[in-house]
Amino acid sequence: MDKPIKRIAVYTSGGDAPGMNAALRAVVRTAYYHDLHVYGVFRGYEGMIDGKLERLERRDVGNIIHRGGTILKTARSKRFRTAEGRKLAYESLLAFDIDACIAIGGNGTFMGAKLLSEEYQIPIIGIPGTIDNDLYGTDYTIGFDTAINTAVEAVDRIRDTADSHNRLFFVEVMGRHSGFIALNTGIGSGAGSVMVPEVDTSIDQLVEKLKKGYKRKKLFSVVIVAEGNKHGGATEIAQQVKEKFDFYDTKVTIIGHLQRGGAPSCFDRVLASRLGFAAVEGLLKGERNVMTGIQNNEISYTPLSDAITKEKNLQEDLVRMAEILAM
Hints:
Layout lengths: L6 E6 L7 H14 L3 E5 L2 H6 L3 E3 L27 H13 L4 E6 L1 H14 L3 E5 L15 H22 L1 E7 L6 H10 L3 E3 L7 H13 L5 E6 L7 H11 L4 E6 L11 H19 L5 E6 L2 E6 H6 L6 H10 L2
Helix pairs in contact: 1-9, 5-6, 6-11, 7-8
């Protein structure tokens, strides 16, 4: 029989995402409602190894729901990838009498959580906090909505310049090896084309589309490029296109880490609150070593192993729609 849960450690790890603080707030306040003690781990697995845990009171998470980043800070830990590092992390949790953990992060965070849980039988629930939206088992991850809104706003501004100067802009967005940010940014901004890792759009196909637009007297165009595209980033693709089609003044913009910063959108605040609440209540109901997510607007629990190994595919209807609407 599982040991009763009285003390929970919560941490953020890997890349930051807008809404992490809202999730942390929900975890702390839900835990206190159930008379549990919560300890924040500072700087993710690095802080866990070094014993950087502090008790969190309700007032510690006041006035943070609107803040980007994470008040617990975050880091990537090479030490935690070793058995020795994980043993030190476990000993730190023991020193604070921690009964369970809640991990807020993405793929790498959950891989670490899975190992820690398997090696030391610690109940863990993951909360998907990553702008990439690439985790299997949830329709949306915390930070994705804010990231695409930031990207669309940037592209809207770029369109004004592109239109004024008859330019072809290649705009690179984040997403690692997934095209969720690029696809949604392309649709939302009315881009002329979207290049994502999941769809093999050749340079020749892109050039042909641009030529057709030029023949229709289309005076400017914007191409959204996912950073993980197989043909390279926006700079490389722009150069390849320019060699074959040099009728536009070609420019490149890389939005970069702007997509990770700033206040989370209302959608991300509500999503993070729901998932933080569900993580605590899931632990109390016996859920173990799972990721809490949203599927069809309902809370779901997916095994961590599935969340990090199964592929989350782009919606084919959105891919087709983006292609048709960009004509």
